[in-house]
C-alpha cells in the first residue's frame, strides 16, 4: 500500500513539472506536433521496456476499451490539456485538473455503478465554487483555455475509469504502450496539417529537443505506467485524490520559472478546490475503515 502511494506522489509531482516544461516547448513548437512527438517517444521507450516482458494478448472484446484510452484519454484529452496550457498558462490548467477527483467520482458512479456519497457531493460544490472564484471574479484568464481544459479533465477522467475497469486483465505496461500507439497514430495527420500552417514559426533548438524528450520519457512513458499501475492497486477515487500535489507543484514552478502572478482570487479558488478534494478523500477513508470494522 505504501508503495502505491509513493507511485502516486511521484506521478503527480512529475505531472506538475510537465506544465512548466510544456509551456516552454509550446513557445517553440506547435501544440499537436508536440503531442505527436511526445507519444512517439513514449511508445518507443515503452517498446524497449516491453522487450523483457511477457507479451500479453488483448481480447477482441477489449479493443474498444483500448481505443477509448488511446483516442479519448491520450489523444483528445491530453491534446486539449496542451492547448489549454498554451492559452491559459500552466498554473491555471493544473488548477482545473484538480477537479479530476470529483469528475472521476461521477464517472465511476455512471460507469462502475459506484455510489456518490454525501462527502463527494460537498466536495463537488466546494470545488465548483473554487472554480467560480477564479473564472467569475475578474481574474486574468482566457475563457477558451479554461473551457478546453475542462474538456481535457472530462476525457481523462473517463479514460481513468476505463483503465480501472480492465486493469485486472492487463499489465500497466500493456495498457500504457497500446494507448500511446493509438494516440501517436491519431496525432500524425493533425500534426502534419499543423506543420503545413505553422512551419515558419517553428523553432527547433536543443532546449526544445530536451523538453520533448523529458515530456515523452519522464512525464508520459514513466508516469503513465505508474498511474495505470496505481489504478490496478487502488480505487480510482483514491488515486485521483492526489491531484492537489500536481497543482501545488505546477503553481510553485510556474511562479519560480515564468514569474506567473497568483492573484487573490486564484489563491482562494485553489483553496476551495483542494479543500473539496480533501473532504472527499478523508471521509472516504473513514467510511472504508468503518466498513472493514463492521466486516
UniProtKB/TrEMBL annotation:
Can you say where in the cell this protein is located? Answer: Cell membrane
- Domain EamA per the UniProt entry, residue ranges: 4-135, 144-281
InterPro entries to which the protein is assigned, alphabetical: AA-Vitamin_Transporters (IPR050638), EamA_dom (IPR000620), EmrE-like (IPR037185)
Annotated transmembrane regions:
5-26, 32-51, 63-84, 90-111, 141-162, 174-192, 204-227, 265-283
Q: Does the keyword Transmembrane helix apply?
A: yes
Q: Which residues form the signal peptide?
A: none
Bilayer topology: Multi-pass membrane protein
Query: GO CC terms on record?
Result: plasma membrane
Question: By its UniProt entry, which SUPFAM superfamilies does this protein fall under?
Answer: Multidrug resistance efflux transporter EmrE
Domain of life, per UniProt, equals: Bacteria
Q: Which PANTHER family match?
A: INNER MEMBRANE TRANSPORTER, S-ADENOSYLMETHIONINE_S-ADENOSYLHOMOCYSTEINE TRANSPORTER
**Similarity annotation:** Belongs to the EamA transporter family.
Q: What is this protein called?
A: EamA family transporter
Amino acid at each position: 500500500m505504501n508503495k502505491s502511494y509513493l507511485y502516486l506522489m511521484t506521478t503527480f509531482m512529475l505531472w506538475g513539472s510537465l506544465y512548466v516544461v510544456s509551456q516552454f516547448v509550446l513557445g517553440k513548437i506547435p501544440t499537436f506536433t508536440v503531442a505527436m512527438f511526445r507519444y512517439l517517444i513514449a511508445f518507443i521507450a515503452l517498446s524497449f521496456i516491453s522487450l523483457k516482458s511477457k507479451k500479453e494478448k488483448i481480447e477482441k472484446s477489449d479493443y474498444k476499451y483500448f481505443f477509448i484510452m488511446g483516442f479519448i484519454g491520450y489523444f483528445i484529452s491530453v491534446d486539449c490539456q496542451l492547448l489549454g496550457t498554451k492559452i491559459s498558462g500552466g498554473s491555471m490548467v493544473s488548477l482545473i485538473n484538480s477537479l479530476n477527483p470529483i469528475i472521476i467520482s461521477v464517472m465511476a458512479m455512471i460507469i462502475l455503478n459506484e455510489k456518490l456519497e454525501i462527502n463527494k457531493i460537498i466536495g463537488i460544490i466546494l470545488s465548483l465554487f473554487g472554480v467560480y472564484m477564479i473564472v467569475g471574479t475578474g481574474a486574468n484568464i482566457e475563457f477558451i483555455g479554461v473551457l478546453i481544459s475542462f474538456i481535457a479533465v472530462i476525457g481523462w477522467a473517463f479514460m481513468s475509469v476505463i483503465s480501472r475497469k480492465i486493469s485486472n486483465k492487463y499489465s500497466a505496461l500493456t495498457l500504457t504502450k497500446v494507448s500511446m500507439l493509438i494516440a501517436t497514430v491519431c496525432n500524425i495527420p493533425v500534426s502534419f496539417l499543423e506543420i503545413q500552417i505553422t512551419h515558419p514559426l517553428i523553432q527547433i533548438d536543443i532546449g526544445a529537443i530536451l523538453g520533448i524528450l523529458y515530456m515523452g520519457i519522464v512525464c508520459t512513458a514513466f508516469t503513465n505506467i505508474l498511474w495505470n499501475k496505481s489504478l490496478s492497486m487502488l480505487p480510482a477515487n483514491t488515486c485521483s485524490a492526489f491531484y492537489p500535489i500536481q497543482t501545488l507543484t505546477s503553481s510553485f514552478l510556474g511562479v519560480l520559472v515564468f514569474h506567473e502572478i497568483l492573484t487573490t482570487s486564484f489563491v482562494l479558488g485553489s483553496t476551495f478546490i483542494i479543500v473539496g478534494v480533501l473532504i472527499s478523500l478523508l471521509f472516504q477513508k473513514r467510511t472504508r475503515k468503518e466498513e472493514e470494522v463492521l466486516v
